[in-house]
Amino acid sequence: MTTNRMIAALSVIAALGLALTPRSAEAQANCDWYAKTALKQQQDNERLKCNLKGAEWSSDLRAHMTWCAGVAPDAWKAIAQKRDQALAQCAKK
Fold first, then answer.
1. pLDDT value for 26
2. How far apart are the C-alpha atoms of 63 and 49, rounded to whole Å?
3. pTM of the predicted model, to two decimals?
4. Distances (CA, A) of 40 to 60, 61, 83
C-alpha cells in the first residue's frame, strides 16, 4: 500500500471512530449533571429521613454515571423528576 493510500485509509478509520464515539461532550455533561443531582437527592433523602430505597437512591456517583450513559435523555430526566416528587412528598410529612 502506498503512503498516500495508507494515510487516506487511516483518516477514514479515524473519522469513523469519532462518528461512532458513544458519548458526546454534551452527553457527558448531561450525565455529570444527572449523577451529581442524584447524589444531592440521596443526601436530601437521608437528611429528611425519607427512607426511600432502590437503585435510583444510590450514593454511588459512578453507578449513576454508568446508568445515565446507557439510556436516552428522557429516561434520566424522568428518574430525576421522580426523585424530586418523592422528596417533595416526604418533606410534606
1. 86
2. 22
3. 0.72
4. 11, 10, 10
Q: Residue 31 and residue 22: Cα distance in Å, rounded? A: 13
Collect the ranges in the chain with pLDDT lower than 50: 14, 16, 18-21
Q: What per-residue confidence (pLDDT) applies to 19?
A: 46
The tally of CA atoms less than 13 A away on the side-chain side of residue 53 is 1
Alpha helix locations (H) across the chain? Answer: 3-19, 25-47, 61-69, 73-92
> Which of 59, 30, 55, 65 is closest to 42 using CA atoms?
59
Query: In the Cβ-directed half-sphere of 48, how many Cα atoms lie within 13 Å?
Result: 18
Q: Max Cα separation, the chain? A: 74
Q: What is the pLDDT of residue 13?
A: 52
| Count of residues making up the chain | 93
**Predicted local distance difference test score (pLDDT) of residue 2:** 61
